[in-house]
Write a structure and sequence with these properties.
This is IST1-like protein. This protein has helices spanning about 1-5, 10-50, 55-85, 90-95, 100-110, 120-130, 140-150, 155-170, 175-200, 205-230, 235-240, 245-274. With about 270 residues, the chain is an all-alpha fold. It has two domains: about 10-170, Vacuolar protein sorting-associated protein Ist1 (Ferritin, Up-down Bundle), CATH 1.20.1260.60; about 205-274, no CATH class.
Length: about 270
């Protein structure tokens, strides 16, 4: 009787079991590939540290942390596959998804859109949705969500700590002080650039820049006028107070002032003759 029942299992049981089995095989294959990549990245960081290329090792640590994040996603998925395999008979008896494997079912359905390395997840999602309907987002594992949808770049402290751990693992005496100073200088330079770019859009600063430019242009026009007319020291001193005026008014003074000097000279000559 048991052999008969085993041969005539429902389609849900067969599809779910085969999809789960293939999924675990796929996870094992891609995990080995990622682990090999992690070994290469670690050796790159070791070579950088030996050659004094601390910043290159720091940047490579970000790639290493990304690979570790993906492997942690694989571990979560494999744990849910084991949960499905253990509770498959219970799922077969109930029309609704049992409480014991609701998180596993919802998380595997969710992961089908976020883990492209495991195409078997899409087959498993189709089986679950056909059996239980759409999944509940509140039942998805929060750790899986943090490692997929809400991905963020690792912090500077985490990357430096990763380099420290690798240096310790390979018995390398490494001091992160120089790297911290370099990162601090880069941060300060970026802050200064942001302030400069922000200030360039400020209308007050633009107005001050235009005033300074106008003043410099006025001074250049006046200096050319004084040189061209060859004024005396007295005339230069009398007109120095108005060097910041507009170009038009200064040009008028340039034309009128020499005649005034000539007039005063004639007046002094006539008075001396008398």
């Amino acid at each position: 009787m048991k052999i008969f029942l085993r041969c005539f299992k429902p389609k849900f049981y067969k599809k779910c079991k085969s999809a789960t089995s293939y999924m675990k095989i796929r996870l094992e294959i891609v995990r080995k590939r990622r682990i090999a990549m992690i070994k290469f990245l670690k050796m790159d960081i070791v070579e950088f540290l030996k050659n004094g290329l601390d910043y290159d090792a720091y940047r490579r640590a970000e790639v290493l942390l990304e690979e570790l994040r993906i492997i942690s996603c694989y571990d979560i998925l494999e744990r849910f596959c084991d949960c499905i395999s253990e509770n498959l008979s219970l799922m077969l008896k109930k029309r609704e998804c049992p409480e014991e494997c609701r998180e596993a079912v919802s998380s595997l359905i969710y992961a089908a859109a976020w883990v492209p390395d495991v195409p078997e997840l899409k087959d498993q999602r189709a089986v679950f949705i056909r059996r239980f309907g759409n999944f509940s987002a509140s039942s998805v594992n929060h750790e899986l969500v943090d490692k997929t949808e809400l991905r963020r770049r690792p912090s500077r402290e985490l990357r430096i700590q990763t380099v420290k751990d690798i240096a310790k693992e390979f018995s390398i005496d490494w001091d992160p002080t120089a790297l911290n100073l370099l990162l601090l200088r880069q941060t300060s330079a970026l802050q200064i650039e942001d302030k400069v770019e922000t200030g360039a859009d400020d209308p007050k600063i633009e107005r001050k820049k235009s005033i300074v430019n106008d003043q410099s242009e006025n001074e250049s026009v006046l200096s050319q006028a004084w040189t061209r007319d060859s004024l005396s020291n007295r005339s230069l001193s009398s007109t120095s107070n108005s060097s910041f005026g507009s170009p038009r008014r200064d040009t008028e003074k340039k034309k009128i002032l020499p005649y005034g000097i000539i007039f005063s000279f004639r007046h002094e000559t006539r008075s001396s003759k008398r």
